[in-house]
Amino acid sequence: MNNAQSEIIDSLPVIDPRRFRDALGRFATGITVITCLDPQGEVPNGFTANSFSSLSLDPPLVLFSLRRDAGCLAAFERARAFAVNVLAEDHQDLSNRFAGKEASRWEGLQFEAGQTGAPLLPGMLAQFECRTEVIHDGGDHRIFVGRVLRLTMPREGEPLVYYQGDYRFLTRD
After folding, report:
1. Which residues pair with 48 in a beta bridge?
2. What is the model's pLDDT at position 173?
3. Cis? peptide before 59, omega within 30° of 0
4. b/e per residue, 57-72, with b = 16+ CB within 10 A?
5. CA 42 – CA 38 distance, rounded (Å)
6. Residue range 134-158: average pLDDT?
């Protein structure tokens, strides 16, 4: 970058956080519940995320980000593996359940341990079992990169989508 470019970039105004959030809301995303077990392999942890993304096909890598103030951050930082559960349009209640801060989100919920030990939720569109490869700092978030070790696509269906702060559904012509 030359000096003129650097001066232009340095003189740009600061982005208003609310306006930034509103603009990001115009990018439709799928919704996932990302899960792990504590390092002792006993306590399940999970949260709703629309920050999930593919990263690489070779090797198969995915990523997600998690707020630094999330109650489950320490568990994900210590876990060696995690699972990404891709929600279908009929999973709005499950998305809400894992979006809250309630400790009882696992109460009465059936799940099975995947091959990595991370909890797999029933009836998902797709599931990715991953080994944590690296964790990066990303402002007020931590960015987790995982190598996909196993994937399943338990059912067909339409995805649950998030757009402008609300759930949306795909429609076909």
Report:
1. 33
2. 65
3. yes
4. eeeebbbbbbeeeeeb
5. 6
6. 96
Q: What is the pTM of this model?
A: 0.90
Give the model confidence (pLDDT) of 45-85 as tens digits: 999 999 999 999 999 999 999 999 999 999 999 999 999 99
The rounded distance, in Å, linking the Cα atoms of 120 and 110 is 9
The confidence band for 1, taking pLDDT boundaries of 50, 70 and 90, is low
Rounded CA separation 93/91 (Å)? 5
DSSP of 107-162: TT---EE-TTS-EE-TT-SEEEEEEEEEEEEETTEEEEEEEEEEEE-----PBEEE
The residue assigned the tokens 């991953």 is 130
Nearest to 37, CA basis, from 124, 104, 90, 112: 112
- Which one, of 96, 86, 109, lies nearest residue 32 by Cα? 86
